[in-house]
Amino acid sequence: MIAGVGLATVYPRRHNGDMGVTFDTIRSIIRAVPFRPIRIFLADQRTIDVRHPEFAAVAPTGRELTVYTPDGRMERLNLLLIVSIAEIDELGRMIPPPDAGQAA
Fold this sequence. Notes:
There is one protein chain. The protein is mainly beta. The protein has one helix spanning about 25-30, and strands at about 40, 45-50, 55-60, 65-70, 75-80, 80-85. A three-stranded antiparallel β-sheet has the order 2-1-6, with no helix packed on it. Strands 3-4-5 form a three-stranded antiparallel β-sheet, covered by helices on one side. The chain is built from one helix and six strands, in the order αββββββ. A hairpin with a 5-residue loop joins strand 4 (about 65-70) and strand 5. The chain is globular and about 30 Å long. It has a domain at about 25-85: SH3 type barrels. The longest helix has 9 residues, at about 25-30.
């Protein structure tokens, strides 16, 4: 769990259309200490991993996120196209939420 952010594991877009992933959310995740690697899920079914905080930056407008991938590509992402975010481990496996397996 990312301290100070409340990212249990996944930040989904809400069903009513409101953003679950906002400028403040992304900024908090990137600035978290210690930083935890994340996987970003996009509306076009792609995923992009952010393995270090220096590999991601939010535009001053708060509308775009720039991510540098391990192979050197630069991805510019519109925040409206981010469906969800999940923590991943050093091998790229998603980390289950702390309450996984508990009945609601």
